[in-house]
Amino acid sequence: MKKIRNLVLLLTLLVITSLVSYRVGEQSIQSENTKTGKLDLSMMWKVKDRLTEMYLDKDKINDDNMVYGAIQGMVASLDDPYTMFLTPKENESANEDLAGQFGGVGIQLGYKDKSLAVVAPLAKTPAEKAGLQAGDLILKIIDSENKIDRETDGMALDEAVSLIRGKIDTEVTLKIYRESKKDAFDVTLKRENIVVASSELVWREKNGKKVAWVRLYKFSDQLYTDWPKIVEEIKSKNADGIVLDLRNNPGGFLQSAVTVASDLVKEGVIVSQESFDGSVQKYSVDQSKGELLDKKMVVLVNGGSASAAEILAGALKDYGRAKLVGEKTFGKGTVQQPEDFSDGSGLHITIAKWLLPSGKNIHEVGVDPDVEVKYVADEKNPEADNQLDKAIEVLWEKQ
Asked: How many domains does the chain have?
C-alpha cells in the first residue's frame, strides 16, 4: 500500500511540476531530457517538500485531492473541453443516463469558443419553457439553498452539470448572455423530474397535402423502438411529404442516427469515424430498409442540432436527399470514449472525429442550411413556427 501511495504521489508531483514550469519558466523542465522523453523529477520533490514544510494550513494537504487535482490539470492542458477527468463524485453524476430521470432543468451543455453554452434546451422541460436558446452562454450558476454562486469561466462540463442538477422542486439561477441582447440576464429555473422523449409525430395539412412533421428530440435507445412505428404510420397514412425536425436535438447514439438514415437514403456511407490510431470506421446505410425513399423531405436544423443530429442532417444534404432549412448547426464532431477506474473516477477522452460523406469535419464549424431562416417568436400566437412554415413551403418547391 505504501508503494502504491508513493507512486500516486509521484504522479501528482509530476503534473504539479509541469504546471509550475509554465508559470515560472523553469528551464530544467524544458531541458534536453524532456525533449527526449526522459523527465527530470527533481522539481516534483521540491514542490512537495515546500508544501509539506511551509504551507500554512497543513490539514488541507490531502494526497487523494492532490492526485485528482493534478490529473485534472494535466488533462486540462490539452485545451479540449470534451476531454476530462472526473473524480468519483463527478463521475457518478456524469454516468446518470440522460434518457432516464433526474432532477434537472433540461439543458444539454457544451462549449462555444471555450465558454459554457446551451447546446439545446430539451423539449417540454423548464429550460425550454423559460425560453433558453441554443447558443446561450451561461456566465454564472447560482443556487442560494446550496450556497453556490460560481462564475463558469474555466469550469469543466461535469462540474457545471453537477451544479445545475439538484433536488426536484428546488431552484437554480443562470446568468445568461445572448448575442441578440445588449446585457446579460438571469433566468431562474425550478428543477423537475426530467424525462427525455425520443420523438413525436405530428400531422399537418397544406393545400390538401398531408405532411408528416417528425420531431426527433434525441438519438437514444428508445428511438430504436419508436422509429419503426413512425415509419409505419407515415406509410399507412400515405404522407405526401416529411419534415424531419432535428432542431435542439443534442445527438446521442450515432448508430441510432444511421438507423434513421437507412430509411431515407438508398445507399452509401452516412459518416466515417477517423480514430487516433489512423483507423477509419465507416457507418453505411442498411440497404434492407429504405422504407421512405419515395417521400419528399426537408430537414429543420438550428444551433441546437448537435453531434449525431448534425451528422444525419449533413449526410442528407451531401447526398442531395433533402434541403436543410433553419440555422447553422452547433458544430460537435468529435467522439469521446468514457473509461471508469476502480476508485470510481473516470476519464472521457476524445479519440476520434466524424467526417461527412463529403469528407468534411463539422467540429466547431457546423452544417449550413440551404435556406437560412431565423426563428421569430410570436407572442400573440405561441404555437406559430415560422421555420416550420418555411420548411413546408420548401417541401413543395422543385427539388
From this structure: 3
Is 46 known to be catalytic? no
**Contact partners, residue 105, CB within 8 Å, separation at least 6:** 125, 126, 127, 164, 172, 189, 190, 191, 192, 194
Confidence band, pLDDT 50/70/90 cuts, at residue 64:
confident
Does residue 6 have a pLDDT over 50? no
Please identify which of the residues 158, 245, 263, 318 carries the catalytic annotation: 318
**Model confidence band, residue 94 (pLDDT cutoffs 50, 70, 90):** low
| pLDDT score of 3 | 39
Catalytic site residue from 199, 332, 345, 385: 332
User: By residue range, what is the domain housing residue 63?
Assistant: 2-77
- pTM given for the model: 0.72
Contacting residues for 90 by C-beta, under 8 A, at least 6 apart: 158, 159, 162, 346
pLDDT for the residue numbered 398:
62
* Residue percentage of the chain with pLDDT more than 70: 86
332 is catalytic: yes
Q: Is 318 considered catalytic here?
A: yes
Domain boundary among 195, 228, 258: 195
Contact 248, 123 (CB under 8 A): yes
Catalytic one of 220, 262, 305, 307: 307
- Of 179, 195, 211, which residue sits at a domain end? 195
